[in-house]
Amino acid sequence: MINYFNEDTKIPKFKRRLYSNWIKSIVNKYGYKLGEINYIFCSDKYILEINRQYLNHDYFTDIITFNYNNDKLISSDIYISIDTVAKNAEYYNVKFENELNRVMIHGILHLLGFDDKSEDEKIVMRNKEDEALDFLSSLNQ
Predict the structure, then answer these.
(1) Are 74 and 35 within 8 A, CB to CB?
(2) CA angle at residue 102 from 88 to 83, to 5 degrees?
(3) Number of domains the chain is built from
(4) Which of 13, 44, 114, 117 could disulfide-link 83, Cβ–Cβ 3.0 to 4.6 Å?
């Protein structure tokens, strides 16, 4: 089950059923099962507080993914800063929706075991994001 919540910002407009099916398909593709995923859309201020309180990090970020996986059952609270997504969309000269989609699937890919700490891992992560975004595009036609 995928839930969408907000804290001190609005939930962005997107087709929730389509996105939920997309995410479930990606999870299944990698041999996992969908547990409970909670997307919490928030502001920079809110995500900074989450980052400080739970991770001891004192900086803004676009996404924080809390991994509650149990073996092959994927569960998480995924916090996404709408403010940072908007800034990144402008910086990378892409539509807000495209950047939001990339961030949303990025969190899921972390839960599926992909990382982005090294340069090689970043390349793999970007390729997996692109594959997932292409799949979303095909579903949305």
Answers:
(1) yes
(2) 35
(3) 1
(4) 44
pLDDT for 58 equals 85
pTM for this entry: 0.93
- What would the two tokens of residue 87 be? 């800034």
> What CATH number has the domain bearing residue 127?
3.40.390.30
Which residues of the chain, if any, have pLDDT below 50? none
> What amino acid occupies position 16?
R
* Lookup: tokens for 36: 């409970």
Collapsed DSSP state (helix, strand, coil) of residue 5:
strand
Output DSSP code: residue 105. H
Whose tokens are 């970007």? That residue is: 126
Q: Which domain holds residue 17?
A: 2-139
